[in-house]
Amino acid sequence: MHTLIIGAAGMIGRKLTARLAADGAIGSRGITRLTLADVVETPTPANAGFAVDTVTGDLSSAGVAASLVSARPDVIFDLASIVSGDAEANMEKGYRINLDGFRLLIDSIRAEGTKTPYCPRLVFTSSIAVFGTPFPAKISDEFLLAPLTSYGTQKAICELLLADYSRRGLLDGIGIRLPTICIRPGKPNLAASGCFSNILREPLVGQEAVLPVADDVRHWFASPRAAVGFLTHAASIDSAAVGSRRNLNLPGISATIGEEIAALRRFAGERAVALIRREPNETVARIIAGWPQDFDAKRALALGFRADASFDDIVRAHIEDELGGRIGG
Amino acid sequence: MHTLIIGAAGMIGRKLTARLAADGAIGSRGITRLTLADVVETPTPANAGFAVDTVTGDLSSAGVAASLVSARPDVIFDLASIVSGDAEANMEKGYRINLDGFRLLIDSIRAEGTKTPYCPRLVFTSSIAVFGTPFPAKISDEFLLAPLTSYGTQKAICELLLADYSRRGLLDGIGIRLPTICIRPGKPNLAASGCFSNILREPLVGQEAVLPVADDVRHWFASPRAAVGFLTHAASIDSAAVGSRRNLNLPGISATIGEEIAALRRFAGERAVALIRREPNETVARIIAGWPQDFDAKRALALGFRADASFDDIVRAHIEDELGGRIGG
What we know:
Rossmann fold, homodimer
């Protein structure tokens, strides 16, 4: 089976690549070839038991999507998009990359299918940003799409296209609305969502972290490990069981900042918690107040998607996968 | 105030034009100029107390949208789209006209606003086709967008764009999800939705009509007169009261085929009802089974949108507006 990852150089793309290299298969189907595409050079895994090739190119540029699709991959992971803040600050760029790039991809798949039948599984990473306030206490599988950012709008539009093209049999799409990834590895960043990871990642290695919001702020999380599991499950699931509603709220962990800190205390003690410096920021607080806090992800659970079991598991996954099991500074 | 109607030659466009000519105003604002645009030649009203000009052109062709917008109309009604059956049979045409045409329009408005500030009211006619089965007994204002046709997909995408461009202050959009128009004037047509009008319109003038579905089939209706009222209300409403969710389920009348026939009997007697010939058609029945039957249109009602008061009012509007008050054949 030939697998294509678009946006392979990003954090999730690299983790997915490592997982596919380790497993050699998705579900019961062995991987024979893996193509890694991104706008930047993508590192290739050293230990893969299958052919790996890389493509550097922008999906929204002429010919790139058609060229990727001409190799007729059986499974396509589309992880490519610019992030929320960038899409908000640069409107045309956001629509070009996050919407038009996706249309070029699905229209290339459609065009490929007019030659000889071709209907690949397309796993699209959407986002809980397709929802906007006001929210119910738990967001159900039937809650309206009402994004309050251009990024969320672009994701919602791609979801609608994915469902229509799937309904027409032009591709076999599954859209997954990823929770906020936590603990996000790497450096602290200035994105509003960064604080949820920063206050754990930095203290776990003895570094100070800034907390701009109150302890009772609640949000919706999945570990990078759970996110990779969502992707491979979405690639191997029976889409007949999914039906016409191809876009899914995924399960996650709903937790407050206070619950995050309590988990940190259990793993790394009071000394780690003391590294969190409170610096209230009203702008960040206002942005986060517009975000979903909890979901009742019935359909995805029934379809076999599995979240982390607890917030402690989210912290544990980070310690195992990023810190080699060691805590401290 | 300069008003532009795109798709002015269609049934609703002509009725809206006649209403604007009769009123000379939308809400409290007088009309000084009316531009009527369509892909075909548009008739102009004889009795308008303001300048009327017509434009023949396809919104999805280069330059047409920019040219229409360059006159900086204060209110734009966008009624232009190809119908559901056409969009389903001709996928590329549907996406080109119903989606790309709309994007050209809103991007032209945005470009115009970069010269000097410009933020017109844009009234977009969406459809209950943005929803797909399974439905609750009454569809709420918070029900998910899950269209099961390309037409519904295109309308849902335009809604999302309308909301995002409005949020950014690039235009001042209101999207209205029109119920099925009944009684639709004109000839019987083969659209699945045609039967709801056919079984009234034809018997009211002594002609036979074919009924392909059962008496207990329920659907959601508004008269052409109510639809025109929705449009003018959407053009004059305070959008601050609408908030960020710019797309509205409109109020309507939920009625079964049996209730339609009972209304016909009250106006035109048993002789008219006898003109309905039952010819069950499973294909039509299956299509209609996928359509919404009832809504709880709280928000639109709170915002002052008013439906017909009863199904009898729908029949009465037709008799008054189309038949000069006379029933019979």
